[in-house]
Amino acid sequence: MPIKRRTMLWAVPALLLVAGGIAAASMMQPPPADLDLSTTKLSDAGNYTIAIAPDVGKLEVGPIHTWTVTLTSPDGAPVESAEIRIDGGMPQHGHGLPTAPEVTEYLGDGRYLLEGMKFNMSGWWVLNVHVDGPAADAATFNVML
Ligand SMILES: [Cu+2]
Predict the structure, then answer these.
(1) Would the pTM count as exceeding 0.90?
(2) Closest Cα partner for 82 from 54, 109, 116?
(3) CA distance 48 to 60
(4) pLDDT tens track for 16-60
(5) Cβ neighbour number for residue 138 with a 10 Å cutoff
(6) By percentage, how much of the chain surpasses pLDDT 90?
(7) What is the 121 CA–ligand 1 centroid distance (Å)?
(8) What share of the chain is helix, strand, coil (3-state, %, to 5)?
């Protein structure tokens, strides 16, 4: 049955191509139209106002850079000695950040230096800012690149 066997050999790469095409198409989907891109938010439990700002003029795919995270009480008083962690990723791609950014320094006035930020793709990213103390809380930010 040489003809049938040959047909089957072609079917495998063809199916892989179709599957790859479907995966690629889902990764190309536009982000939600109503994405909240605000960079200052009240934390989920209302303990803090959290603001994030990249220390670069324009976000670009590739370079490692720093951000400043500013933590205040809801009435605007700077929060010092907070424990802050960052994670995130691309919701439409199912992957996290390509680096493990860390808050490395308290800059005063509720501002914290976040080092090691990097985006390796353009598109919709989420950044989760976790405050482990003095009161545990968190906020999620959307970033478009
Ligand atoms: Cu991605």
Answers:
(1) no
(2) 109
(3) 29
(4) 565 665 566 666 788 899 999 999 999 999 999 999 999 998 999
(5) 17
(6) 76
(7) 5
(8) 20, 40, 40
Q: Show the beta-strand stretches assigned E in 5-120.
A: 40-42, 49-54, 65-72, 83-90, 95-96, 102-108, 111-117
Helix (H) or strand (E) holding 63: none
Output the CA 74–ligand 1 centroid distance in Å: 33
How far apart are the C-alpha atoms of 130 and 82, rounded to whole Å? 10
> Residue 122 C-alpha to ligand 1 middle, in angstroms?
7
Output 2 or 101, whichever has higher pLDDT: 101
The stretch 107-117 carries a mean pLDDT of: 98
For the segment 7-27, what is each residue's pLDDT rounded down to a tens digit?
A: 666 565 565 565 665 566 666
